Amino acid sequence: MPEKIPEKMKAAVLCGPDDLQIKEVDVPSPAPFEVLIKVMACAICGSDPTVIKGNWPNQPPFGGFTPGHEYSGQIVAVGPNVINFKVGDRVAIETHKGCGYCENCKRGKYTICLNYGKNETGHRHYGFTTNGGYAQYVVNHVSTLYKIADNVEFDEAALVTTAACVHFALDNLGGLLGGESVAVLGPGPIGLMAVQLVKALGATKVILTGTRESRLKVGKEVGADVIVDINKEDPIEAVMKATDGMGVDVVIECSGSKKAAEEAFQMPKRGGRISLIGDPHEPVTVNLRKFVLDDLRAAGVRGEGMGDCKRSLALFSAGKIKAKPLITHTFPLEDVNIALKTYMERIDGAIKVVIHPNG
Amino acid sequence: MPEKIPEKMKAAVLCGPDDLQIKEVDVPSPAPFEVLIKVMACAICGSDPTVIKGNWPNQPPFGGFTPGHEYSGQIVAVGPNVINFKVGDRVAIETHKGCGYCENCKRGKYTICLNYGKNETGHRHYGFTTNGGYAQYVVNHVSTLYKIADNVEFDEAALVTTAACVHFALDNLGGLLGGESVAVLGPGPIGLMAVQLVKALGATKVILTGTRESRLKVGKEVGADVIVDINKEDPIEAVMKATDGMGVDVVIECSGSKKAAEEAFQMPKRGGRISLIGDPHEPVTVNLRKFVLDDLRAAGVRGEGMGDCKRSLALFSAGKIKAKPLITHTFPLEDVNIALKTYMERIDGAIKVVIHPNG
Amino acid sequence: MPEKIPEKMKAAVLCGPDDLQIKEVDVPSPAPFEVLIKVMACAICGSDPTVIKGNWPNQPPFGGFTPGHEYSGQIVAVGPNVINFKVGDRVAIETHKGCGYCENCKRGKYTICLNYGKNETGHRHYGFTTNGGYAQYVVNHVSTLYKIADNVEFDEAALVTTAACVHFALDNLGGLLGGESVAVLGPGPIGLMAVQLVKALGATKVILTGTRESRLKVGKEVGADVIVDINKEDPIEAVMKATDGMGVDVVIECSGSKKAAEEAFQMPKRGGRISLIGDPHEPVTVNLRKFVLDDLRAAGVRGEGMGDCKRSLALFSAGKIKAKPLITHTFPLEDVNIALKTYMERIDGAIKVVIHPNG
Amino acid sequence: MPEKIPEKMKAAVLCGPDDLQIKEVDVPSPAPFEVLIKVMACAICGSDPTVIKGNWPNQPPFGGFTPGHEYSGQIVAVGPNVINFKVGDRVAIETHKGCGYCENCKRGKYTICLNYGKNETGHRHYGFTTNGGYAQYVVNHVSTLYKIADNVEFDEAALVTTAACVHFALDNLGGLLGGESVAVLGPGPIGLMAVQLVKALGATKVILTGTRESRLKVGKEVGADVIVDINKEDPIEAVMKATDGMGVDVVIECSGSKKAAEEAFQMPKRGGRISLIGDPHEPVTVNLRKFVLDDLRAAGVRGEGMGDCKRSLALFSAGKIKAKPLITHTFPLEDVNIALKTYMERIDGAIKVVIHPNG
Known about the structure:
The structure is a homotetramer.
Chain A: E1 8-16, E2 19-26, E3 34-43, H1 48-53, E4 70-78, E5 90-93, E6 96-97, E7 124-125, E8 137-141, E9 145-147, H2 154-157, H3 160-172, E10 181-185, H4 189-200, E11 205-210, H5 213-221, E12 226-229, H6 235-242, E13 248-253, H7 258-264, E14 268-276, E15 284-286, H8 289-293, E16 297-300, H9 308-317, E17 327-332, H10 336-344, E18 352-356
Helix pairs in contact in A: 3-4, 3-9
């Protein structure tokens, strides 16, 4: 018998810059093509602090907005016209839903929808420009739902976009080939997932660079062949050394550091590719000479796209990539501010911190 | 001042197999994200006879269904949530609107939506599985609308999918390169547009094959470098002769003939590509040896996709491709059955026949 | 101290149709850009019987030609201008060397060199149009050499093109994406390698079809998720069942059977891809309707290309794909005819049979 | 009767930094796979001054080296193993010949050959690391030869790499689509050719930016839809204005200016692409935020590749692109230093300057 849905729920409401408060609010109702999800896990992402400061473009006004965009849960109600999902389904979600009809959406590029942030066009960016998962319940459009295999836990599934973002980053580069070498810059959640993903896709030499020994150690455990502490070793030299002086086939910049972004352009072999996932928030100074003379290619990536969450969940279910080594802390919804502090200040070796809104 | 919209209109209603009747019916109202179009031109397509026979998968029951899927007109009313279009806009339409959230739609492949024909999912195939343009008015989702430049007439714009289909066929092959050679099989509307399009995209040698002298002559006029009457000359030999025995870079099969489809596999140079636009309605017998040993590639194409109507209209406006040489006849809506007969029996050299529902 | 190179060696010389004789012949000398290899392992390939019958295009005259094209060994001498290889290097070879300057070679498509079989242009197809590896020594151009990691044995390395051919087949399809589903048709050496390779590249559901229980069992052991005995089960239905009625993302036809080639076109999901590796030596009858309406794509593949042997060897070394489960028999060079009979008649469950020309 | 080849010829020999002298030297002899060309036209390229300063990596020692790499002429002798060319053929050449067997060459990326500058490996970069076309005769490997159609003059053909470089730049971006918008930065020879090429390949809106009115005027004449004098107008704003605030599909940076390279990253629409042809010789400071958040892609290009000279010559012959509007001056070989000065100082509106070594 389906669980009864309450009228009220707890949600973390953004009441002002850096002022996230647990409030009792109405449980939302699913409109056509929408479902109501009971949120079982919502992970904290590197972009959450920006949102919580109130600095995200097109974010809703303070007082009525709940952030959180990496979540999973169980469908407890479905709106009209929902045919592929039913009450009881365990689902992970992706954050972007395009308008569906702009020039980019029609080419499958819904993460860069030209109607970004305009809810009236049908666009949604859950947890950014519309309510998200730091709540007991949330409504999501069917476009953002992915069924979870029985052997994947909610906590893992909440990290699906971490993997899908890297998946899509590789799509934007034209794919990864089996037997290629990859440098992953930055051993944060995305970097640690990138290491696993490129290994699962056939990379045979993966070099992970970073500054924190504890994270590099996790990188080693999840498959990095070479780890480089950039406080002790020059990362460009380390990459060259690990590749007989040739450079790598692919660089994946995950750190968002200015220095790493600059170095990324010097690491590929002639004809190599660079994926920029991290946003270095400040101008970078790049020597483009190598880029031009060596026919390098680069691609940015905003986030998961092309339905890659489905493919990422398949790899979770097959055991080829793992979220658990990245999840260091979990908190109940009430402790969302402690959770955020733990994540942001990397307290106690925090890598990925997950909220459990329903206990 | 906007034109008054009547309550009733004339429409060609499919009342039974091959039984298309002009009826007076209600003018439809646009729902959210939809507009009402006053149809100025609706061209007859090669798939219309199949629909009018009642043989299209998922087509609506007889008695309440209006076919016609190649049309253009003027927006006379907009439904809720329409922000990019307004009353007065001149628009061309494309026939497919995907559900927007299945695996294929999310990759931009809405013409092969996995929810094809299920209107409740949001899918639409105008003139096939929902009402189309053989009527004075029609509603269309914003996803299917493309603004027409001032210098493009309604009749021309009605043929946008003829061009977009070839555009998308090339997309599915990975694109055309400047300076390549192309064999176009079949001098029907699609073939004659293909000749123009590949020329506009940089092909330097285009060979057109067919059986009708009059159509081949049009092909020559619109840019074919070599025309081959296959009643007089073996088309494979003709292609080889025109390419110093190497074969062409690209074959575009537009005829839907079994024989042409079979020959298409023997025409490319080593490493060449084959686009199959025509559906040969019967099994074809192919020698795959060359396909395997010469690393050939082939791609099918259902119809226009990826928003290629926009790109096709840009080429119309720039004068790089032309619809007018293909339009041989126009008829008022009342004469829809004569128009169909003219088209199907190619009476009086008919190539493309256009209906004018509003005079 | 480098080993002394003898003046004479044993080689299997093709003296007439199906008449392979062990002869004493001169050890060849490497020309510029060539090396002399002491052959340690040479595997029998499915195309060898055609060559030994004398039916390969451009093959040398009987009496002076040694076949064999899947081999590995040690460099014992280098010709002028060889700078990247030295005496003592353990190498695997690929069979194709393009002329290097035709239109295809300049695009990296040397397996479909336009100067195929013309030795005077610099083209080589070792074991087909020039001497190969059923001999104690062989000369190879540096273009065909790949260093073997210490942890890869000669027997394994001899199978590198079996893997590289599948690698290249995927390249020709535009790559495999992590989390995709794949049907592999035919559990011969290529099919059994394909199963492993697509798993190593992130496929999460692999369906292997065939007729021999023993080979399907090996398929299961090397990673197939579903095996289908097509004598007991309809393969198209089995594929649909395993994919919730959707069809697979990718079909790889490895059997060369007419029936399998025909069925391959019915197995993909809408928008799926088909790789044709097997050459069905007779015309196949295909219903192209699905191909056209579902935007399917297909690509043939002649053999290993694009330097994919390097990437395949990297996967061998990383333990991600394995050759040993496929190698059922080894023979000394003297027993080459017994080896061929064992392979061709699949005696004693033979899958891959390897010759050891130097004991 | 073939022309008699003299033993001695005139050549511009680089005798020291910026010290180019006309000398009498031996006419070279073609080795296997080489031909001897009587040079009819050799254009000056933007990289020539660097070479003439002596600053190119791996360039030969002063005293025995003749630069010049954009040339055309007639074959007057052929070496051994040349089968596709004969005495009397009119040919254009490309500058790069890869070793043919390194990892990049085997993927068709011979312009970024891993054995660059090592002549003993078979690599050649004519006019850079081996003798070029500022001479009456030159030897070239068959890999670098392209036959010229009868309707293309030697002067035009000498500019083939100017076009092929842009062709290859587009290849590296994944191609241009018909109906796309393009910003070309820099109205030098490459920019003016880029304008023509993208128009020939179906671009419908081309915006050309630069500082020199005379060159912008030529740009207008050869097809630019919008020209922008960046001394009078902000180029980013101008691009936005011309594209309804969306940005262009493709930016091609041809100027080599630091400022232009920086601005190139701000001009594409969401999901757009950037080609970097110009080498900005100094670090550029780029805001990568848009690159990451808008899924932009960029590709560098060293020079013509993939045999694109063939495709470019086909477009010359078809009249789709023209070299003549770019050729402002011609000089005999004796005046090579005046020619260089004219080119470098843009004397008398010089755009492209061509040397005629044989009168």
